[in-house]
Design goal:
This protein is of the alpha/beta class. The protein has eight helices and nine strands. Helix content is 35%, strand content 16%.
Length: 276
């Protein structure tokens, strides 16, 4: 299924226009290497299969890649398993977060180690489909700076999504759509792809926890990077415990959402992507 697109204005963007997809940019340079950043905490039950399946899928499709797994303070054997995987998967780069922990901090640490010119942020728990990583890479190479997956458009889907979390997810995403006047309906999903230039343009990253999942895409949209949406699939984890708690979907998310909203409407474009 082709990505969904909508034409943007060629003149100076207004606040409402800035939230809609643009056309791809054929002048963007071809990508040479994909980095996949995977934050992991106490994922001994699934991290090996996640990395192995991802590596095989990327090799089958001849995607030059590295896989950066950030061990975010695991108390189980996650770090030891990564060490063993490294012996037969040279593309794997395990990184240990020895500082303050948190999903956002782990992702930011992984991004600081990336050597690719594009990145996909992926979960460690096998909830994200490795085949969608290939589609992200292919879509970025069509001239997009960001590609956002949605589980809630035609072709996407979820398996075993807990009912309460699904309800809260849809409410939060509806609120984001209203505040930012955007058609993107799955902002809170971490599984997204960016060119390195878009990541650099979104710095500094300030969200230390799962609220980074909204900081990155919203900043990319507000700052004027081109983006599109593709359908993706998600399934609930089969091992371990979920790290995102319902309590975290409150004040931390609201802080980041309002932070970027203030930038959108009151920064007068000071942080927008340079033109030309």
């Amino acid at each position: 299924m082709p990505p969904s697109t909508r034409s943007g204005s060629t003149s100076r963007a207004t606040p409402s226009e800035m939230s809609e997809p643009k056309q791809p940019e054929p002048s963007l340079p071809p990508l040479n290497k994909l980095t996949v950043v995977i934050p992991a905490r106490d994922e001994a039950g699934c991290i090996a299969s996640t990395v192995e399946r991802l590596h095989v899928e990327l090799r089958i499709h001849a995607v030059p890649h590295e896989i950066i797994v950030v061990d975010d303070g695991s108390q189980d054997e996650t770090w030891e398993i990564l060490g063993r995987l490294k012996t037969h998967i040279p593309a794997l780069s395990p990184v240990q977060n020895t500082g303050p922990h948190g999903f956002g901090r782990a992702v930011a640490l992984g991004l600081s180690h990336m050597t690719g010119d594009a990145v996909v942020v992926m979960m460690a728990d096998e909830s994200d489909d490795c085949r969608d990583v290939i589609r992200y890479w292919q879509t970025l190479n069509q001239g997009w700076e960001c590609v956002f997956g949605s589980r809630f458009i035609a072709g996407g889907g979820t398996i075993d999504y807990p009912r309460i979390k699904l309800l809260l997810n849809r409410l939060v995403n509806f609120g984001i759509r209203v505040l930012f006047r955007t058609s993107l309906n799955d902002t809170t999903n971490a599984f997204k792809a960016y060119r390195r230039t878009a990541i650099e343009g979104c710095r500094p990253l300030i969200a230390p926890h799962f609220n980074l999942t909204v900081e990155l895409p919203l900043k990319a949209i507000v700052r004027g990077y081109s983006w599109t949406v593709i359908p993706i699939t998600w399934r609930n984890r089969r091992t371990g415990e979920a790290k995102l708690t319902l309590a975290e979907m409150g004040s931390r998310y609201m802080f980041i959402i309002l932070y970027v909203w203030l930038e959108k409407y009151f920064s007068r474009g000071d942080y927008r992507k340079p033109s030309g």
